[in-house]
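User: Run a structure prediction on this.
Assistant: Running it now.
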Amino acid sequence: MLYYNFCKLSDFSSNDINNTLNLLNEQQQSYINSLTETKRQQSICVRTLLNLMLKEHFKGMNVSKLTFVANSKPVLLDECLHISFTHSNEYVGCAISNKPVGIDIEKVKPVKDSVISRVCSQDEILCIKAFSDFFKFWTLKESYIKATGDKFLSLKDINFASNNKLQKDYCTILTGEIDGYKWSIIEIV
């Protein structure tokens, strides 16, 4: 079971946002209030998206039990659901699964060769023909780290070149594009 969605910040009604804010616990409200205005808006909207998804797919659930475990992964207390958040500029995304899951979205833009060589394996570099190819690898790697919860993994050590068994044997992988953004979702099987 995997549910996911991406929305623009402007897609949320003030009513949906206010309903979510009223459900957030003190820890979540304090966290949101500590952020810059842009990050605050993204954080509120991604929690609103989660709340709407929970209402749609899991009757009776809402964000009131949202907390974060030691590795900064979002969880709902007393529920056996894995959650992942992402945001980039005007977009937010959320994934919910019964398995470890990670989601990432990034705006495609020019990047320096030094960044590509710091992030990608040699196999991946050979596959990059455009900046969008780089961001496909970037979002896959970020999603993988979110799914595993291992923030100490080096992005360069995670290899998603087509000849790598990681993507075939250990993960369910979804990728796509929306309005000049690349996104990826990884669910650990």
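The longest helix spans residues 37-57.
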